[in-house]
Each structure stands twice: as structure tokens, then as C-alpha cells.
Amino acid sequence: MNGCQIQNRFFKEKMSGTRSELTWLTALVVDDDELTRQTIAKMISRLGVGRVLQACDGHEALQVLERGAVDIVLADVNMPRINGLSMLETIKGRWPYLPVIMLSGCATMKMAVEAMRLGATDFIVKPFKLEDLEVPLERAARERLILLKNRELREELAKKEEVDRLNRKLERKLSELSKLYAISEAINPAKLEGQMLFQKLVDLAAEITECKGASLAVLDQRTNRLITKAARGGKRDWVEDDIFPALEVNPKLFQVSRMSVAITRLEGKGRTFGASWIASVPIIIGEEVFGVLNVWEKSSGGDLTREDVTLLKALAQRASLAIENQALYEGLYATLTDTLLCLVSTIEAKDPNTKHHSQRVTRWALTLARAMGFSQEEQDLLRLGSYLHDIGKIGIKDWILMKPDTLTPEEMEVIKTHPVIGEKIVSHLGLLPVEKSIIRHHHERWDGTGYPDGLKGEEIPLPARIVAVADVLDAVSSNRVYRRARPLREALEEIAKGAGTQFDPQVVEVLMDLSKDISCPQLEDQ
To answer: Which of 264, 248, 2, 249 is nearest to 148 (CA)?
Structure first.
């Protein structure tokens, strides 16, 4: 049983209110008088000591200690061959973590002082009663625990320097991995673009290297000059213009390894700027230099560490991937969007009455969204979703779509499939969930009687609820093959009647407020 196990057990049993805190002890009683020795052994057993060994003198006691673990020794002072004090001195020399209680029937002050000097835990004068032993035994047990813990700490201390070195190395590695993960997570081309991406790169560069400032400059291929696009700390236009006016002024930045970090010691303007050096790493896209990422002056003073250099390189590599991916994404997204919009235009071109329906619905939806406090990002998602809301009609037969009479129940069921068809068309084209939800749910009703899923109330995504109002508003106020267009005011009245049943009351309320503003360009254009 090691020191920690003993200590845990001791305190657990101590809290139970019994004497069982001594049961883990193995005690050795040393006395040349057999009757006295056996009496003491019985007494400490009654006090709860788990195991008791005996020895008739100091010589035999040392042999017992050689053979096995003993936690406490109770020894008489006056014994033949090796007396108690000599035995105590030997024990403390060979087993320094072993508590010893000295016993004597003819004790003197000098003897007691000598015993304590040699390391005795306690000194008890014979004869003594059972209760006279209890407190010394408990004190010796606590001392044993402390001594064992002390030994454990000493052994750990011997390894501490190596452990500390490994811990420091591990902490540096964990910090580096954590920062690399943060870089990977923070630079998402799907969420950041243009200036936002540049500023994020600059902020990350300053934060991960703990520098006072950072900047990102893009290479102007026409003039071969670096133009600052984002900065943090310092004067925005100072760094590249004064230190890197052109690539040929600082050629070492792009020599040997194209991902090397160049450190330039600053003089003149650099000193007035408050930095003694600037570190730069190029951002490479394909085989061309796109720009350069700079950091300067550690907040704590000193130079960049090896870890800082590794992180700057990783950031520059991630930046090049993000910028390249963003360019590819924007190109693909533009192509995809153009294709989908052409499909919508094809559908609407079949019927002159529905021409530009999607554009008008989109304008209405965006007007409502802005009035409801949508962010620019939310408006962008709403714009594409509302424009494509009827794309599923490409899967509906033309004679049903353009039927001049009222649709039969069977034909109406066919029409109701267009939201699901639309969602299937765009399901593998990379649209975001919000955009797809508009296509699927723009015919759901607030009271739950809509289609295709019978969603109710706020179960219906808010953008889909907005498009539902905009869709009906344009449909009522536009010509159809089966009826003439109704005035916009009548369309608004019909929308108002459907608040709380067909439409979200909040969206209808916003529309009614907008309709009161006669200067609203969206209303005037209708």
C-alpha cells in the first residue's frame, strides 16, 4: 500500500468516528521483558492496530525490520546487546520514514531529550495505561503518513526537472496545435469574403504571435507594388509603402523557400513607428505571389520564436487556400445561380401573366425582411430562396400550369407537389438549408393546413413565412389565365384577412405598416 492509498484510507476511516484509523498499521514492539512486551502488544491491538510484531531486543528488532514492512516501532530504552537509543539511531539512519515511540521505566529528562534529538516521535514513561497510548499512536500514524508522502515527494522531486522539461514541451505543442486549430476554424471562405477575410487574417496573425501589429498587403500585378488591404496597430499606409514599396526592394522575402519568413530590422521611420523589426511571409496562390502578411514587435518584447514562425507559415498557407477556394466558390456559385435563374425564367416565359413573378416576389420579400431587421447575410439567403421558390413548377405539366379554368382536385394535388420537386432539384447543388426551406415551405399555412408538411406557426421557417405573404400579394395583384389582376389595395386587404390563419400575423403587420407609407418605392412600383 503506497502513501496516497494509506492517507486516503486513514482520513476515510477517521471520519467514521471509530478507532479503525489504526487498522492499516503494522507495529513492532521491542522489549526484553516478555510479559511487558506481550502486554503492550495486547494494548495496541485493543486500540485498533491491525498487525503487531514483537522483538526481544534491538538486534532482533533490526532483523525484523530487514524482513518486511513495519509502520511504527515501540521500543524500550534499556535492553541488552543493542539498547533502545542505539537502535533508534540505526533505524533513523536506514529507515528515516519510520516513526519510533520510546518507552522507559526509569526515564530521565536527559534520556527523553536524547531520544527526541535522535528522531523519536514520542517518549512514554512506564507504567502507562491504555489511554496513554492512544494519542501517541494516532500521532505516530499521522507522522507515518506524512513521512511516506515526504518520501514520495522526494522521489518525484528527483524527476521534476525532466518532468518540467517535458511539460513545457507539451504545453508549447498543445498551444501550437490549439492555435493551428483556431486558424483552421476561423478562416472559412464560406463565411468570410473580401475585406472581412483580409481583416480576419490580420487579427489572427497579431493574436497568435502576440505582436503589437499586423498587416496584409496584396501585390498589384500592374505596378508590382504591395497595397495594404487590412491592418491592425500602427499607421495603415506606412508599412508596405515605406518598407516594401516593390518586391525588388526586398528580394530576400521571396528567395530560397517561397514560404520562408523574412525578418527586417527597422531603422529611421521604423523606429519612430515604435517597432524594431517586422516579419513577413508571402501568400502564394498557385505559382504566383498574391500578397504578403506582416507582423511586428512582440507585446512582451524580444523576437519571434520558432513557434511564431511555424504559426505564421501555417496561417499564410491557410490564407492562400481560403482565398483560392473563395475565388473558386464564387465562380461556381455565380454559374450555378445563373443556371437556376435561367430555369426560373424559362418557366415564367411560358405564360406572359407570370413573367417576372419571381423577381417581384423577391422584391416584396426583401422589403419585408429589411423592415423586420434582417442582416445583409440573411437578406442574401432570402433573395436566392425567394427567386427560386417556384422552380419546382418545371416538373408540372404545362397544360395544368396554364389551364384557363379552375383546377380539379386531382390537378390541384399535382400543383401541390411543386415545392417538393423544387427542393429535390436543388438538393445536391450546394444551397444552404434556409434557401431550400423557402422552396419547400412557402405554401405552408400559419394554422397548419398548408402543404407539403402541414407545418404550423413558428414551425415554419421565418423566411418561408415572408415569401408566403409576398407570393400571394403578387399573385393577387397580377393577371392570371383564369382571372384579372386585382388592385394592390384589395390584395393587401385579402392578406390582412388571412393574418393568423394563412399568414404569420407579425409579417402581415409589417406589410400593413409599409403600405401606409405612400412614399415607399416598392409600393409605388407595383
So the answer is: 2
